[in-house]
Task: structure prediction
Amino acid sequence: MAITREELFKQMELDEAIRNDGVYIRPEVLESLDFEHTTQEQVRACFDMNHEIYKKTKLPAAIRLSSNYRIQVSYKEKAPYSISYENGSFLLYKGNVLLDEITFVEKPAYYNKVTSDGTRMSTVAQEVGKTKITVAYSNECALKDKGLDCKFCNINATKANFAEHEGLKWKTPEQIAETVEAAYAEGYRRITITGGFIPERREVEYYIDVAEAIQERTGLEDFGGAACVGAPADLDVIDKYKEAGYSAISSNMEIWDANIFKTICPGKEEICGGRQNWINALKHEVEVFGKGNVRSYFVAGIEPKSTLLEGIEYLASLGVVAIPLQWLPNPGSELEGHRAPKTEWYNDLYIKTYNILRHNGLTHLDYYNSTNAENSVFDYLYDADGDILPWERHNADSIKFAS
Ligand code: SF4
Result:
């Protein structure tokens, strides 16, 4: 079903509202889903992105509207949105008003495979979209031990709640390489390696070992790898990621305003040489990896929109793909129980950010290459303007736009 640009904006609002307010999935829906073979389940490998802790059954990772617009599931029992199962169809409601018939995002085949040491590959790498996967090599952050973890982050709480429940552990380079080989054989072709801070900031050695293991197993010198790293004290370390074979890099500033950065990200301030060093790191990353191959995420909704857009504009002018992500005050974070801004606030921010990216020459391909996202609001905005990635034209799950 082709949609118009106006309909896209309405679906963006729905996406935002569903994530902001949560969605209740009725028990009969969960009972009818075949998580073993067809429906992709959530794996809380890094952050639990639901509104509340839910462990009774598996939860679906994402839904698709009838237009193919993909929306991540953020479960909440007392939510205004709900999904029911009626006469063989899954229906999305707001209150009693039927909004759309939906489907659930499919499970990749590699999710049911195991590595040579018996680890389920679904716990090693998670699907991000039809061509991308992500690995959280460590499912904890050492900043917590120092009382310096980011106030919006629930990585350590997620580990406490779900690591044993879902069989999640640190990943070895060999487990990652075997999983990448299986996923790439299925059509995936990009991987982000991320994770919480590890003691003594030894990430670079680990990332090099991972790159070598993937190259050896897949035979790919350029394996489509993006390294998500904290700003190093010695900026020359950044060159080592490039030498190891990563083609993109990211350092997530999270907050632009200098004072709010100190308060919300005390560890990123104290352990990583301060906020200015994050900016210096991003500048150096652009020198090493090139414009459009560097990304910084921001947790949007904690600081004023004006300072956030100032930061996005500044970084985009340097060639950094600077992207605001919706803040979900999730369970176990210091900010649990807070409220994120309204849906309209986010949509305005996304459209302004998209215009800044385009104004600074950052294309859909740059967005694709540098972010840990696919089928996101920014992908859809690029698509609507005709900047469609070549393979998207043939994907059955792409949105088609009415001309
Ligand atoms: S650096 Fe901050 S956002 Fe990243 S894992 Fe640690 S506490 Fe979470």
